[in-house]
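Re: beginner question about structure tokens

> Can someone show what the tokenized structure looks like for a real chain? I only ever see the sequence side.

Sure, here's an example I had lying around. Input first:
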Amino acid sequence: MSNKKPAQPVQVGLFGDSISCPNIDNLPLIVDPQGSIEVLAPGSVYQPLLLSPRQDYIDVGPGKLDEHEEAFVRDLIRRLYPAGNHPKSDKTPLKWDSKEIWLKRNIEKRDESFRLRVDDSDWFYPDFIVWIIDFETHTQTFGFVDPKGLTVGAGGGWSDYKIVSTLYMPHVVERQLTANDQKTEFEGEEWTFRVRGVLVSTSSFASLSAQAKFNVRDEMGHDVAPTEEDFKRGRIVFQPPPTNGNRNLGYIDDVLQLLIKDTPVDHLMSLSATMFENPADFTPAIELEYELALRHDEKAQTESEFVAYLLRDYLKPDANGHFGGWASKNRRRQLMDYAEEGKWGFGAEKASDIRDHPTPCKELWMRKMKLK
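And the corresponding structure tokens:
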């Protein structure tokens, strides 16, 4: 047996300083009997956040943070506390204006961990739970954030299970909670409970937008590369690389705003979740709902495929800021195939009547229903 005394474990601090055990000032350190080390960060509840030790022989588990995950935690705290006066206790929430934020590490493949799944895909375990409590609006947002390289990590593009789980599945979960009549009460009052997610891309915007799997359609139906705003509507935010040792922390603002505020795409996702829940009972009432019903009836699709095609057609607004311009034009073109022919060739429906029809999606749906 070697008589060599093991070196003292050393942790790299969240904010760049070296933390040597057991002298911990800002972050409590826990050492289990096997020598594994876990570090708690302010606002972390239920499960410790883990940083990487400098010595390879020190076992850190379960699941240490990689550099991008650690950067997200550090950037979040720095953005909320630019003066460096962040709370020192894991029992103290982070503050965002009048809101509280509790940050939780979501460990993969644990029974108690949060996970999402679409169709028959693998389970998606987002890296962080960002629970936002808004006392002014009585709203609790169960947010999740996953810093991920998407150039390779989202091989399916818009149909990738991690992307569909982030955009679409929260609305499925909310539908299930509503169906079960589950209500959120806090301190004797009823609160609104929301589930929303964000993917923080550690791949650059340039590398992601250059890939055809992320193309979107403009109002003329052409496949074009998405802008950063298009990606943001798709709940993908880019983590910028540091410049001269400092990173632009504006992406943290985008992440938090996406967690508490919906985009036009969220309305689409909510309608889609309602339709897939019980297609037979989905009765369209407005033009957008008729367009979704047409998509659902046209061919058998998985929910991932349906969401992917929807995103391609609706992520990019037209010149007037309206979404789904190509979808509406395409339905108007299809309506020509269902134009009414006059008896003996007389009184046929004019092309102008179809071109100027105020609700082409509804009209096309109704004419298709007549032929069934």
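Each token stands for a local structural state, so reading them left to right follows the chain. Residues 76 and 252 are 6 Å apart (CA to CA).
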